[in-house]
Write a structure and sequence with these properties.
The chain is an alpha/beta fold. The chain is 31% helix and 23% strand. The chain is built from six helices and six strands; from the N terminus they run αααβαβαββαββ. It has helices spanning 9-12, 15-20, 23-28, 51-57, 70-83, 121-131, and strands spanning 39-43, 62-67, 88-92, 106-112, 132-141, 151-152. The protein has a six-stranded mixed β-sheet with strand order 3-2-1-4-5-6.
Length: 153
């Protein structure tokens, strides 16, 4: 049985990544569509590279930081405690099994480069559709090769 692939948290939370892929720049692509009271799912959050910035944009809402790698979620928990983030809920779970979230309970899904590490793409997308509210938005980034651009759906 093939399992989901995990990228080590050290690689995902490396300061060099902030130079190559600044979280504020990526989030600025859709920040006009976000309200500060949204319920957000950071699916494939890794160690919280984008979660911390999302928690500042969604200051009166909730951010679920969900990743299948317990080591990565442990790093999110450390950040939540260190930065006193009251609106972030870290959770260990694969994308295709986010059944702890209710149907149509999420206003915005942020998923950056998660599908490339997931074996069950269809299951993950089915769960995203299930939890997303009617009229909700999703940023789903999928990179197939260098030079391709992400799209807002």
């Amino acid at each position: 049985m093939v399992k989901d692939r995990y990228i080590p948290p050290l690689f995902l939370d490396n300061p060099l990544r902030s130079l190559i892929s600044p979280p504020r720049k990526i989030l600025s692509r859709f920040s006009d569509y976000l309200r500060d009271d949204y319920t957000v799912l950071d699916l494939g959050s890794g160690p919280g590279f984008f979660t911390v910035v999302l928690s500042k944009v969604i200051s009166n809402g909730i951010i679920y930081a969900v990743d299948p790698d317990p080591k990565a979620v442990s790093k999110v928990k450390e950040k939540v405690k260190r930065l006193n983030l009251k609106n972030v809920i870290p959770y260990v779970s694969p994308a295709q099994k986010i059944d702890f979230l209710g149907d149509k309970s999420i206003d915005f899904i942020f998923s950056n480069l998660m599908l490339c590490c997931t074996v069950d793409h269809e299951g993950a997308l089915k769960e995203m559709r299930r939890v997303l509210k009617g009229g909700g938005l999703m940023y789903l980034s999928v990179t197939r090769s260098f030079g391709k651009r992400d799209k807002l759906s």
